[in-house]
Amino acid sequence: MNENKESNIRVRFAPSPTGGLHLGGVRTVLYNYLFAKKHNGTFILRIEDTDQSRFVAGAEDYIYNCLKWCGIEPDESPEKPGSYGPYRQSERKAMYRKYAEQLIENGQAYYAFDTTEDLEKMRSENKTEDNPSPQYDARIRMKMQNSLALTNEVVQQYLQEGKPYVIRIKMPENEIISFNDMIHHEVSFESNLVDDKVLLKADGMPTYHLAVVVDDYLMKISHAFRGEEWLSSAPVHILLWKYLFGLENMPQWAHLPLILGPNGKLSKRDGAKYGFPVYAMNWTDPRSEEFTEGFKEKGFLPEAFINLLAMLGWNGGTEQELFSMEELIAEFSIERVHKSGAKFDYEKAKWFNHEWIKKSTTEALYPLVKNLFETKNVNTQTENYFKTVIGLVKERCTLISDFYEQSVYFFEAPQTLDVEAVRPKWNENKQSFFEILCNQLAELKSWDVIEIENCFKNLATEKSIKPGELQLPMRIMLVGGKFGPAVFEIAHLIGKEETLNRIQSALTKINN
Ligand code: GLU
What we know:
Layout: H1 3-6, E1 10-13, H2 23-38, E2 42-45, H3 59-70, H4 93-105, E3 109-112, H5 116-126, H6 152-161, E4 166-169, E5 176-181, E6 185-190, E7 198-200, H7 208-218, E8 223-227, H8 234-245, E9 252-256, E10 259-261, E11 264-265, H9 268-274, E12 283-284, E13 291-292, H10 295-298, H11 302-310, H12 325-331, E14 342-343, H13 346-359, H14 362-375, H15 383-393, H16 402-407, H17 428-443, H18 449-462, H19 467-479, H20 487-494, H21 496-510
Parallel strand pairs: 1-2, 8-9, 10-14
Antiparallel strand pairs: 3-4, 4-7, 5-6, 10-11, 12-13
Helix pairs in contact: 2-12, 7-8, 11-13, 14-15, 17-18, 17-21, 18-20, 19-21
Bound molecules: glutamic acid.
The site of glutamic acid (GLU) has 8 residues, from α7.
């Protein structure tokens, strides 16, 4: 591909900071980012905050934190402005009016002075069974308080008086609005089905529709990847592009498939109901105090989260499922994004995390697991010891939180022992085996795995008991339950004194 052309690739993630970042939102970020990086382009974060009524404190910072956690760094953003700023729409307020006025001059938009009561009246008067929520469109507009229906004199008078108004697009009648989407290919809409959307609000702020088009133009966006829920707004955007900029340099659109939950579009409620996270990170809505769990705090690694999101709606065309960010950048292609909705499967999500925990180095896991144990107030001894433990149990952990149960017995004697798993096959011979074992282990010169194992096996032979029948009780004595890595490895790590203490205290419990 032509080098020069590649560097003209500019994509944007344009969230409205109104709450937590949903799986689908992060996937949109990711696909934008992968596409930009693959083509040596620029990835922009633009904050779409023109709807002041939906402002939510902390939501913007939350977005930055999520992107950081995912390892996605925008090339241009409010925090790192490039040459196309500001990157927060509220700070661009003054830029939009002239475009709305240009549309009015060209007869493609109009002033609308209707009050809330006028709009309510219009809706109730025009409501029919077939049309339960009538829209402000060609059939209605001439009956309303706007610059198309009122005389010029009245309009001028209203404007002079400072009567509040909005600017609406005048949707054409009986037109087919078509465009080419990179995923859906040829897409067409009937103009009659689309209402005269507000472009500029009474407070002088643009609505999303005007701002997104003007900003994509001014920021020279080449490709716009966004969720499929925006597809129905596309005809308004296409018309604005046509009216304002003659379609020149309109981005190529790609509407990404929905992420589906157990009952249609994946929702926050599904998460709460089925016990899985749907947000990238924990989020508490400051207005309602409603809490939504995040993948990060649930114990997912960012590598796994990115990987599982990439596969929700895309595949690399081979059997490969595990991809690092670098591999995704190399392999990603929009042609491989599916058209139909992508089903979110929590079990599969956990599989990705398990695989990524196994692939991660002990060094990388250490701070996360350390943090987990700190919240539980466990003394994890030396860093070296802790790291050895992590390396030994990571294969058994699906979530970071699993490290607690899978390794706490390396630091503290188990609180409970599954004695019921031992009692049915317990007998005097086994009792005597463990008593003698304690004496012999106490005498061992070096406490290494082979020595411990040899001592154990030799004694088992002497006692004519199969070692296999003794390993389960030994495991339960040291660990508390039927899990964990090789039992002699555990004994070796926890040390001689601790091993002997645990065996002796377990013998008392088994016999009670
Ligand atoms: N502000 C819109 C959102 O919150 C962006 C849609 C778009 O990318 O055009 O998702």
